[in-house]
Design brief:
Elements lengths: L3 H4 L1 H4 L31 E3 L5 H14 L2 E5 L5 H15 L3 H7 L10 E4 L14 E6 L17 H27 L15 E7 L11 E4 L5 E6 L6 E5 L2 E4 L7 E5 L1 H6 L9 E3 L7 E7 L7 E2 L17 E2 H11 L4 H4 L2
Parallel strand pairs: 1-2
Antiparallel strand pairs: 2-10, 3-4, 4-5, 5-12, 6-11, 7-10, 7-12, 8-9, 8-11, 13-14
Helix pairs in contact: 3-6, 4-6
The chain binds N-oxalylglycine and nickel (II) ion.
Pfam family, one: 2OG-FeII_Oxy
InterPro entries: DIOX_N, IPNS-like_FE2OG_OXY, IPNS-like_sf, Oxoglu/Fe-dep_dioxygenase_dom, Plant_2OG-oxidoreductases
GO molecular function, one term: oxidoreductase activity
Amino acid sequence: METMDQRLVSTWSNVNSSVPLSFVQPPECRPGKVTNPSTKTIPLIDLGGHDHAHTITQVLKASQEYGFFQVINHGISKDLVEETLNIFKEFHAMPAKEKVNECSKDPNGINCKIYASSENYKKDAIQYWKDTLTHPCSPSGEFMEFWPQKPPKYREIVGKYTQELNKLGHEILEMLCKGLGLKPDLFIGELSENPIVLAHHYPPCPDPSLTLGLAKHRDPTLITLLLQDQEVHGLQVLKDNEWIPVEPILNAFVVNIGLILQIITNGRLIGAEHRVVTNSISARTSVAYFIYPSFSRMIEPAQELVDEITPPIYKSMSFGEFRKNFYEKGPKIEQVLHS
Ligand code: OGA
Ligand code: NI
């Protein structure tokens, strides 16, 4: 049987000059010629401005219309951003066996993982051109003993980075609460206490027109904060039936609304569909910070946003149940969310 280190795309993709059949997407999913004909972009928001009320309006508008935006002047130092991208690049550049070994410290195999393609590997009919390292990153430091220890500064840098992202995530959530008229502390505690980090690595691909790095999806999160490689394109957002590229901007974060926030806001905010295309020239690294609730927390439309005229359009379920549905149903999850 193939072992995980053999399966990682980075292990074999540089010795293959063509795309293996198991990675060729069906025609309706192929990106085709990836030349970015669109001139549209997602909103760019300066979080450092003095008019806080105006910033809130911008964040709310972008979350309602696009479900995606980028933020600059977010208060996270550019040195930390650079160190973080570099540490994950160095991690993915290590020998495959070492990567797998560094992700095998949890005897239950749950709290740190490296995988090829997607977490649903066995269920994916067609594979995706990517390797991913993921683990929980709660500010309390829980499970840190299972994180990689190589490269040597991994825990120090990723620990510092995820603390900062937790603060930024909460600032944005608080702005959304203010904009929507929700209690400003609604997302403090159980609804956001289970963050995870995912460090994706998309190796160069011999034929980007046939493959995808990541399938079209909505995130199963409250919100996601994404750091992307400074030079390499790949992420695209679906808006009005058109794929809009998300420009890599120096020291910016891409913020996107996840399905859970779509449910809690009773559809006022949208968890937009997005995907990642590959390229033939450079490897691309991205670091996603997923804000998740605790597994037992019920997810349902907020009281303040429902009444007789606007009844809840989603039913209540625990986050644990939601996540199970998400992995079983994939893109068809919306069928089970509606009340
Ligand atoms: C994700 C995601 C985008 C990227 O992790 O859910 O959409 O650019 N990542 O890697
Ligand atoms: Ni995503």
